[in-house]
């Protein structure tokens, strides 16, 4: 069992009373009639770094605890409270949203069995893998004007912590141990585990807690609902790989799972990780002025992630399987929330598992960290299929995030609300596009219909109507708005000085920016201040003023992804890019799962173009233990590869087992070491490998997003974001964190 830190009796009592026992009373604090409180502006004490171990997850790794959170103190000396304009927006939202509908709170508490005595889960190295206590300030009953009231409601719902019964005696969930829920289905002999969280530490803690409260039972099967890391990364906390390899414990997953669990996060992994700092507020303190929630859960655990390959693939659109006495009907839903995903129907329990396709939010069509744009129409159709196949019979609907819905009428209401929200997004955006509205205008035109605005299940917490609507146009029409002036635009650093010059320089822009902010016209202020910051990246007054505007915009946003992005940018503008949080290198499980072709493709991306000019070679790569062979060819500054071929005129042939290649990929051995040990056989010009290694760089997620937020590199020929490769140049590092989708 992990080392844990116990919550104080006062904290536990507060949590149980405020959320588990009296959710309606807490919800009422967010309802109409609450009097605004003026937040005091005080300079907060230093942040407490409870774990300095780096780890890139949504706020995970380095947990930033703000001691002044519950006192209304801002964590940054330059930070501002909610302005009068922001408070008016808060009051407007409070007045028009359906806070009288408390069914979500009633459903979220239903079936509660127990909460653990601890609020932290630790790794073996003593670092914090999970810290639910860092959000306890949400349970003080305050209405925070620096948090959109709808988001605060969602954040409170996500404070559920402990063991819950979903179907009496048969289906249980542990919530609040990670971004996702972990589900335990009681079979004839043991537990069937659905979605074993992000890390083995949180998954193991959940399994131990279930066994403590319900009686010890072995794990008889594991099901991955889809290919995002918060749904498989903790598998080693619930099952031994030897039991999987022997066939004792099947691991079940949808068609395409292994491909997409890795491939979605490789090619632009470093850029995705940097952008994740913004979407997930990775380095924002947990505070009313910082990180509040992640919409589908509080955050992502910062423990040890792994991957055990599935042994049973669900291939058909609808496929029935019986495991440990439990009948499960799987519905494959590719092209929805994940490229490989499946829902599950339990006919004997009249229970429908909605994976991450139907949760307590409208999801991302475009994920701000970066990912291929999803298809809202297909998503809507898969929900509709589930509604007609299973929804008319279901008595309970539960999922990998959020809380269950009980009663057939309620289930159908939620399924229809989400089906219609995705369909309306697709259809209405294209309606406007076909009337000439562009990708640069649609975010200010598209509106959810009033009937859905009044339904909590149709609110976009993980997504947002602004960025999802732009994604629909981008999916069908691309990024260009049709105006030739925007087809090949100047870079901001080149266009910004022109605007600043035409506006008379920095002084009048700062004055106008302050005037606009005082008037509550924050977007207009960002339009001109952003130009000034690009033109004068060392102008701290401009950066501070832009940060003020960003901060107020962030306070008013319903989507935490959007909120975090504005607040993270404000933090970096004020203090520079925070140091100390870097992504972990890809673990051994992920490396083993990565195809050789993916690794070779990423090597091609890592080539320094200044070192490839005039270089040409052809290399055969042969891995006898898995029967693969490739030709790598460097020509015209492009490194290409083709599987299933060898070239008769190759300059070099490299033969090594795939198991030894994985040592190169993990950085546990160098090319030279494997040659000297006889693990690599070479025929031809060995120096070509040395040339290739010298061309490779390692990416680092510390590049600027906002100008002037990072000290210039000492060397004019290198950038901190593209460092020369180390003594392990073939090591695979920059996989993105796909947790949360």
**How would you characterize the largest beta sheet?**
8 strands, mixed
> In what order do the strands lie side by side in the largest sheet?
4-7-8-9-10-11-12-13
Distance between the termini: 29 Å
Radius of gyration: 26 Å
- Determine the fraction of residues in helical runs and give it as a percent range: 25-40%
Low-confidence stretches: 1-62, 712-719
> How would you sum up the global shape?
globular
The chain-level structural class is alpha+beta
Molecular structure report:
The structure is a single chain. The protein is an alpha+beta fold. The chain is 35% helix and 15% strand. It is built from 23 helices and 26 strands. The strands form six sheets. Strands 4-7-8-9-10-11-12-13 form an eight-stranded mixed sheet, covered by helices on one side. Strands 14-15-16-17-18-19 form a six-stranded mixed sheet. Strands 22-21-20-23-24 form a five-stranded mixed sheet, covered by helices on one side. Strand 11, helix 7 and strand 12 form a beta-alpha-beta unit. Helix 15 (506-518) runs antiparallel to helix 16 (522-535), helix 15 (506-518) runs parallel beside helix 17 and helix 17 (540-556) packs antiparallel against helix 18. The model is unreliable at 1-62 and 712-719 (pLDDT under 50).
Topology:
Layout: E1 4-6, H1 9-21, H2 23-29, E2 48-49, E3 64-65, H3 84-96, H4 103-109, E4 112-114, E5 118-122, E6 128-131, H5 149-157, E7 162-167, E8 171-175, E9 182-186, E10 191-194, H6 200-214, E11 219-223, H7 241-245, E12 251-254, H8 257-263, H9 269-279, E13 312-314, E14 318-323, E15 326-332, E16 342-346, E17 351-353, H10 376-391, E18 396-398, E19 405-406, H11 408-433, H12 450-453, H13 465-477, H14 492-502, H15 506-518, H16 522-535, H17 540-556, H18 560-575, H19 588-593, H20 596-605, E20 617-623, E21 628-635, E22 638-643, E23 652-655, H21 658-666, H22 671-676, E24 681-684, H23 687-695, E25 697-699, E26 722-724
Parallel strand pairs: 10-11, 11-12, 12-13, 17-18, 20-23
Antiparallel strand pairs: 1-5, 2-3, 4-7, 5-6, 7-8, 8-9, 9-10, 14-15, 15-16, 16-17, 18-19, 20-21, 21-22, 23-24, 25-26
Helix pairs in contact: 1-2, 10-11, 11-13, 14-16, 15-16, 15-17, 16-17, 17-18
């Amino acid at each position: 069992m992990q080392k844990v830190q116990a919550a104080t009796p006062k904290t536990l009592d507060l949590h149980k009373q405020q959320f588990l026992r009296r959710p309606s009373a807490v919800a009422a604090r967010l309802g109409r009639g609450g009097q605004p409180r003026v937040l005091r502006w005080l300079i907060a004490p230093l942040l407490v770094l409870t774990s300095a171990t780096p780890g890139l997850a949504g706020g995970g790794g380095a947990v930033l605890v703000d001691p002044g959170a519950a006192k209304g103190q801002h964590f940054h000396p330059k930070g501002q409270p909610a302005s009068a304009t922001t408070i008016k927006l808060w009051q407007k939202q409070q007045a028009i949203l359906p806070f009288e509908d408390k069914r979500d709170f009633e459903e979220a508490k239903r079936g509660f069995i127990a909460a653990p005595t601890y609020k932290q889960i630790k790794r073996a190295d003593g670092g914090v893998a999970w810290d639910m206590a860092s959000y306890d300030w949400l349970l003080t009953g305050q209405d925070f004007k620096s948090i959109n009231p709808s988001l605060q409601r969602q954040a409170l719902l996500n404070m559920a912590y402990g063991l819950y019964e979903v179907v009496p005696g048969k289906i249980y969930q542990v919530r609040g141990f990670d971004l996702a829920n972990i589900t335990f289905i009681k079979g004839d002999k043991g537990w069937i585990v659905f979605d074993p969280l992000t890390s083995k530490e949180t998954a193991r803690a959940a399994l131990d807690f279930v066994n403590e409260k319900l009686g010890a039972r072995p794990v008889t099967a594991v099901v991955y609902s889809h290919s995002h890391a918060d749904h498989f990364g903790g598998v080693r906390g619930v099952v031994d790989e030897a039991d999987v390899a022997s066939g004792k414990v099947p691991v079940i997953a949808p068609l395409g799972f292994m491909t997409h669990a890795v491939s979605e996060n490789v090619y632009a992994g470093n850029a995705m990780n940097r952008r994740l700092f913004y979407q997930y507020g990775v380095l924002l303190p947990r505070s009313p002025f910082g990180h509040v929630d992640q919409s589908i859960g509080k955050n992502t655990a910062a423990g040890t992630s792994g991957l055990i390959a599935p042994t049973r693939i669900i291939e058909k659109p609808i496929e029935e399987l019986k495991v440990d006495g439990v009948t499960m009907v799987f519905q494959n839903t590719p092209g929805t929330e994940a490229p490989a995903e499946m829902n599950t129907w339990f006919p004997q329990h009249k229970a429908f598992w909605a994976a991450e396709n139907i949760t307590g939010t409208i999801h991302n069509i475009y994920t701000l960290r970066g990912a291929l744009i999803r298809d809202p129409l297909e998503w809507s159709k898969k929900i509709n299929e589930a509604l007609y196949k299973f929804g008319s019979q279901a008595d309970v609907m539960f999922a990998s995030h959020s809380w269950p819905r009980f009663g057939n009428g309620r289930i159908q209401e939620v399924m229809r609300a989400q089906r219609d929200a995705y369909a309306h997004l697709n259809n209405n955006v294209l309606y406007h596009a076909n009337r000439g509205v562009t990708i640069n205008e649609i975010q200010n035109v598209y509106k959810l219909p009033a009937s859905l605005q009044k339904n909590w299940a149709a609110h976009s917490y993980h997504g947002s109507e602004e960025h999802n609507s732009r994604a629909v146009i981008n999916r069908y029409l691309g990024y260009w708005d049709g105006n030739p002036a925007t087809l090949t635009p100047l870079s901001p650093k080149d266009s910004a000085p022109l605007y600043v010059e035409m506006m008379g320089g920095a002084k009048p822009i700062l004055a106008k920016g302050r005037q606009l902010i005082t008037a509550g016209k924050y977007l207009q202020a960002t339009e001109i201040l952003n130009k000034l910051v690009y033109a004068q990246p060392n102008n701290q007054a401009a950066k501070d003023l832009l940060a003020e505007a960003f901060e107020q915009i962030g306070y008013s946003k319903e989507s935490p992804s959007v909120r975090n992005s504005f607040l993270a940018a404000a933090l970096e503008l004020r203090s520079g890019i925070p140091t100390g949080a870097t992504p972990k290198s890809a673990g051994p499980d992920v490396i083993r799962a990565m195809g050789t072709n993916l690794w070779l493709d990423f090597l091609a991306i890592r080539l320094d173009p200044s070192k490839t000019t005039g270089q040409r070679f052809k290399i055969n790569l042969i891995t006898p233990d898995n029967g693969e062979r490739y030709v790598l060819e460097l020509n015209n500054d492009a490194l290409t590869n083709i599987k299933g071929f060898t070239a008769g005129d190759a300059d070099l042939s490299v033969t090594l087992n795939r198991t030894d290649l994985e040592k190169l990929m993990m950085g546990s051995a160098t090319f030279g070491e494997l040659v000297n040990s006889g693990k690599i056989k070479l025929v031809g010009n060995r120096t070509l490998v040395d040339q290739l290694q010298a061309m490779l760089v390692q990416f680092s997620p510390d590049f600027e997003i906002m100008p002037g937020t990072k000290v210039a590199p000492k060397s004019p020929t290198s950038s901190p974001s593209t460092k020369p490769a180390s003594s392990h140049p073939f090591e695979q590092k920059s996989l993105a964190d796909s947790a949360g989708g």
